[in-house]
Amino acid sequence: STVELTNVSIVGIFSPFRMHEACLKPGMNISRSGYRVFAANSSGVCTELAKKITERLGVELGKSVVYQESNSETRVDVKESVRGQDIFIIQTIPRDVNTAIMELLVMAYALKTSCAKNIIGVIPYFPYSKQCKMRKRGSIVCKLLASMLAKAGLTHLITMDLHQKEIQGFFTFPVDNLRASPYLIQYIQEEIPDYRNAIIVAKSPSAAKRAQSYAERLRLGLAVIHGEAQHSESDMADGRQSPPLSRTTSGHPGLELPLMMAKEKPPISVVGDVGGRIAIIVDDIIDDVEDFVAAAEILKERGAYKIYIMATHGLLSAEAPRLIEESAIDEVVVTNTVPHEVQKLQCPKIRTVDVSMILAEAIRRIHNGESMSYLFRNIAVDD
Hints:
11 helices; 20% strand
């Protein structure tokens, strides 16, 4: 009958197969790959790493605009649909750390309210990572930042060489803490002549584990600098001191607790033979370089004829480029987790290692639901 024919035609038009074909018309802006990669900063220096990652992935950088209004408020405009997709936000931290954090938070929240399926933050250098311990009446700012990112909508985090691995416990969502050491070790093997005559140096006892990892992988010796040059991670000021140590009370004096003796650092010394060797100092962050300059001087005095510094994150704040240029340090090698093009112009001793490949592979594996264990092969608990 006529009615039956009409019903068949209606079912044919609105069948699931025909609806799927309609959604795949060339003119519609729907990603076949199912994910987008955005940069949380629109400046050229900060998007350089994001462009390298997208080139390796074979995708285009997502269309968005991030800018500061006249009253210094951060505004983010996402220029394409993200509904139902995995979104990766790449944020490299420039010198203005707090602005970069707000850009990341505002973009994550904008994507969350635009119905993105998953929002994965790619933050190679995690800011405030040194403020991960309680100091006097301070606060654990790193924990606060982790809570803010979760509230803004992040569901996963990709980072690299956290200052303390225990920071991963601050987050309520998965964290992949990648390692830059394979790239730095490769640089040592390929770019340092006669590296077999080198010795790995820890500039303080607290950095000995990281240095030991490098030494064992390169089959080299290990030296540790100990003494008054170590002061960046001092525990001397740790503690609440509340109530005050001394107070005048009338009546019962209370319990008399034993007084903790103050620490006194010994004269600076080097544990290990560096005479006639290439000294390679390894660390995770190089920011204020006074410790490194002092370490280079003592190593020169002990007979090291070349001094290299290897670090994942090259913040190089304040007068760091000038101090490096005037010091006994021969070369500083850092990765491109943090923009430092200006510092390289000020100091030709600074070299850069590209880590965009491992970040791109992490993005690909997370989107495809593949195991991340391949990126952590031969990584021990203490590495």
